[in-house]
Amino acid sequence: MKELQIPQGTLLLEPDFIADNEANNLFQSLQQQLDWQQAEIRMFGRMVRIPRLQCFQGDPGINYRYSGLTLQTEPWHPLIQTLKQRVESFAEHTFNTVLINYYRDGKDSMGWHSDDEPELGINPVIASLNLGQARRFLLRHRFDKTIPQRELLLNSGSLLIMAGQLQHYWHHSVPKTNRLLEGRINLTFRHTFTTDTQME
Ligand SMILES: O=C(O)CCC(=O)C(=O)O
Ligand SMILES: [Fe+2]
C-alpha cells in the first residue's frame, strides 16, 4: 500500500487490490445483478437526474442522506458482502454501508464534493474500490487555492483509502470526458453512524 503525500489529509492507494480478471468478472456480475437507480437531486430549484447510476447497501435500518434525498439501505449483495470483508481486513476498519456508483461511459461523472455528512463522523475512513474502466480522480483543496490540484488514475482492481482530515480540506471529483470509455463501477465503503450508535 502506497501512501500519497497530501497536506491535511490521508490518502492510501493499493493499485492491485484485486487481480485484473477477477475485477472484470466482478464488474460484469455487479453491472447485471444490482438494482441500479438514477437519482434526481434538486439543483438551482429544479430536479435533475444525476449523471450516473447508483445503489446503496448496508446493515438494516440505516438511512443515507444525499443532496437532500434520504435513501434506505438495501441488503448486502453476497458478492459485495465478500468484498466488504476483504476490504475490512485490509483497511483494519469496519464498514456498515456502501455507496455504489456506475459510470456507464465517459459522459457519466461525479462533481466536486467532499464526503463530510455528519453521519459519517469527524474524520471518516472511506475505502473506495474500482472495477472496470480506469477513470481520472481529481482532488482540489477547499480553501487554499495555491495548493496544486492532484490527479490519480484509478485502475480496475485498485483500492483508494481516504482518511484523516481529507474530507474537511479537500474536494474530489470524477470528471466527464468526450473520450469513448467503457463502464466503471466504484464502491465507497463507509461507516455511517445512526442515532443509536456513537459518533467517534
Ligand atoms: O467514483 C469515484 O471514484 C468517487 C466516488 C465518490 O466520490 C463517492 O462515492 O463519494
Ligand atoms: Fe466522494
TrEMBL record:
Q: Does the keyword Oxidoreductase belong to this entry?
A: yes
Q: Which GO terms describe its molecular function?
A: dioxygenase activity
The record's annotation in PROSITE patterns points to: FE2OG_OXY
Record's InterPro entries? AlkB-like, AlkB-like_sf, ALKBH3, Oxoglu/Fe-dep_dioxygenase_dom
Q: Where is the Fe2OG dioxygenase domain?
A: 94-193
Q: Which Pfam families match?
A: 2OG-FeII_Oxy_2
Has UniProt tagged this entry with the keyword Oxidoreductase?
yes
| Keywords for the protein's UniProt record, in alphabetical order | Dioxygenase, Oxidoreductase
Would you say which domain of life the source belongs to?
Bacteria
Record's protein name = Alpha-ketoglutarate-dependent dioxygenase AlkB
Organism taxonomic ancestry: Bacteria, Pseudomonadati, Pseudomonadota, Gammaproteobacteria, Oceanospirillales
